[in-house]
Amino acid sequence: MRVERIDVIAIVGGCVPERRDYASRLAGLTGRILIPAARLEAVPDPIEEAMMLAPWCLHPAGVVIEFPSASAMPDLVGALADEAGPTRLAGVVCVVDAAHLMSDLARESFSVHPALTRLAGRPVPHALVAVNQIEFASMLVLVNWESLDTDELSTVMSLLCHLNPSARLRVDHGGELAWRSGDAYTTEQVRPGWVALLGGAHDPHMTDPRVSSFRYENVRPLHPARLERLLDTRIEPGEFGLIVRSMGFCRLATRPHVVAEWNHVGGVISFDPLVRDDALGGDEDLLAVGQDIGFTGIDLDRAALSRALDEAALTDAELAAGPGEWARFADPFPAWQSVPEDAD
């Protein structure tokens, strides 16, 4: 006999007092039991603890779980939305501090909390945690917005819609809440804006003249040394505008048979191996031939940035020289300890 799954609304966000307040109000509005972050933050794995506690909250309306800041969103969604598990993930609310959003997404510090480093095997950028909370949410609730002028508020709201075009955006006035449950989550998510960009379905419902997103593609591998110079001397200083988020797939010429994940937010970027070409089955398509990256930012010069990225790719002569010659190129990026046999 199948056990009834308990309905869960997850509350996330780095603004602790406002997150706590919203979780409490939402639990009262929906008649759900509240599991506060204070109950989870002292354990090594808050998500695992939440999965153990949720089935004991036997209430017809379900439960609201306020998660600590150190919670990995892919793990959270994967655990709570698993159809074989005890929970049904009805929604994820991300409480966003409007006054500190840009500084949160520009942080260059790292967290060593075991809940975040378990899968990565290394410290995780705080900015990546913040942007993932936005990208995986079904509702974005803006707090502390009163100090922003009209233009600043418009830019912040548009940026959120570009980072996650499928989420509902609400400005919190501190009073009665308007909650509407949408479709339950599945373990496969298409909410992040970069996924929508690569899929040709990016359609943010709020726009601002300063905020834009675009998809960059180039089939030629990147020259690692030229890419590093581009990142350090042109992109990071803001020559092409403020790139808030870029994510997708790329290939380095010195590692030509591996598709890598391009993962950038604020001042932090990483390149991690995803899959080897020779590990694909006969009926499997390449994850990416060259570069396929979604960019979102403020005051972006799309044409100039695209040209600069093109210049970091191999020239005609370099491409014709072949992988044997590419292996001689300077490669300043960290070596990959291992390459997965297939993509996850």
Automatic annotation (TrEMBL):
Domain (CobW C-terminal): residue spans on this chain: 211-313
Q: One short Pfam family name for this protein? A: CobW_C
At the top level, the lineage of the source is Bacteria
UniProt cross-references to PANTHER family, sorted A to Z: COBW DOMAIN-CONTAINING PROTEIN DDB_G0274527, ZINC-REGULATED GTPASE METALLOPROTEIN ACTIVATOR 1
The name on file for this protein is CobW C-terminal domain-containing protein
Lineage summary? Bacteria, Bacillati, Actinomycetota, Actinomycetes, Micrococcales
